[in-house]
Design brief:
The chain has 368 residues and is α/β, with parallel strands linked by helices. The protein is 44% helix and 7% strand. Strand 2, helix 6 and strand 3 form a beta-alpha-beta unit. The two termini are 25 Å apart.
């Protein structure tokens, strides 16, 4: 029987490391990234190329966060004209229903959302004069609305974003939607499989994608990073609670979208200050987007062409879908499920302690 792989050792080490999470944070190490492969006791130091993240997590532990200078007042001065800044933000998580919220909230007559989702303006590298001008233009018609929003699910994971938002929009309301982290990771992986980018290997299994996380030099490493790290909710949620206060942060569960979408939307409406009655009887059924991965390189290429948007081409594509696409969603292997459960369990427990309530919805896929 073959011995454990380096990935298997890393998972075992990560679970052991998670048990000593508080001590790790106190001495400046980061419990959310893999240490070098080796004996699990004592926890080894982070490898040099991951030290930057340890410092980032440590820096966000202060309750009073100093707004970063790169939300530049100079840009505001150099680009004259009023900006209709948002007063609410849906910050994530990825693959947790934020696109549904975007399209549904746009229907409310008292709420304004720009024509584009996921603006990412408050992330590092997006705040120059040109970006501000573009942001201003997207919100130029937002005058007179009770609620003005931005929906960017990348904001939850980025440690710099809460302070950046607070500097410009100190009274903003925050909405966070959480999903079982294993289910979220697998949905994220399947979404990548649906991507028609030729650089992505459609045949790569979920297990292989997780293994790649141990090799930062891999060309697709960042996707493996997102599958794993974006599911560690405790630090992500804590940053927003400490930056904006609990009364301004609404935390929702992805499962509630399926159970009672109308009630969830009414909660959102009350939180952002618009009439909740609009959603009471509104048809808010969610459109289905069936899983489909191109079988052929030509299919992937055609999807990216302008001709693919023509009605006749789309009609033909729907008729030939079973031939052109693999429609069977692959199941998650039990080994990946078991290891991800061990990986995420300590973080879910800490999140429950932070919020003061049990969250069985975040353990929906757990093996018994």
């Amino acid at each position: 029987m073959p011995g454990p792989t380096s990935f298997d050792k890393w998972f075992a080490q990560r679970v052991s490391f998670g048990a000593n999470r508080s001590a790790s944070l106190a001495d400046g190490t980061c419990p959310y990234l893999p240490a070098r492969i080796g004996p699990p006791h004592p926890p080894p130091d982070l490898s040099p190329h991951l030290q930057w993240y340890a410092g980032t997590v440590q820096s966000t532990r202060d309750t009073e966060m100093t707004p970063p200078a790169c939300v530049s007042e100079v840009h505001l001065q150099e680009s004259p004209g009023k900006v209709n800044w948002p007063n609410f933000f849906v910050v994530g998580a990825q693959k947790a229903g934020t696109t549904y919220l975007y399209h549904t909230l746009k229907r409310h007559p008292e709420a304004f959302l720009p024509r584009q989702k996921e603006l990412r303006y408050f992330q590092p590298g997006h705040q120059d004069s040109a970006s501000l001008d573009r942001y201003r233009a997207l919100y130029a018609d937002a005058t007179g609305y009770k609620a003005i929003g931005e929906i960017t699910p990348f904001y939850l994971f980025d440690p710099d974003v809460p302070a950046r938002i607070r500097q410009v929009c100190p009274d903003a309301k925050i909405i966070i939607v959480l999903r079982d982290p294993i289910e979220r990771a697998y949905s994220h992986y399947l979404d990548r499989r649906r991507d028609s980018d030729d650089r992505f290997d459609h045949a790569e299994s979920f297990r292989e994608a997780l293994r790649r996380y141990n090799d930062r030099s891999a060309s697709e490493w960042r996707f493996s990073q997102e599958y794993i790290e974006h599911g560690f909710y405790y630090e992500q949620v804590r940053r927003y609670l400490e930056t904006f206060g609990r009364d301004r942060v609404l935390i929702l569960l992805f499962d509630d979208l399926a159970k009672n979408s109308n009630e969830l939307l009414m909660r959102v409406a009350r939180h952002i200050g618009v009439d909740p009655g609009f959603f009471a009887e509104l048809d808010v059924s969610q459109p289905r987007h069936p899983y489909a991965v191109p079988r052929f390189a030509a299919t992937s290429w055609l999807q990216r062409q302008k001709i693919a948007k023509l009605r006749v081409v789309r009609s033909v594509g729907r008729a030939l879908r079973p031939i052109l696409y693999d429609m069977k969603k692959p199941p998650m292997d039990e080994e990946s499920l078991r290891q991800l459960q061990q990986l995420f369990e300590p973080d879910v427990t800490r999140l429950e302690e932070l919020l003061g309530r049990k969250l069985p919805e975040l353990r929906k896929t757990w093996l018994q």
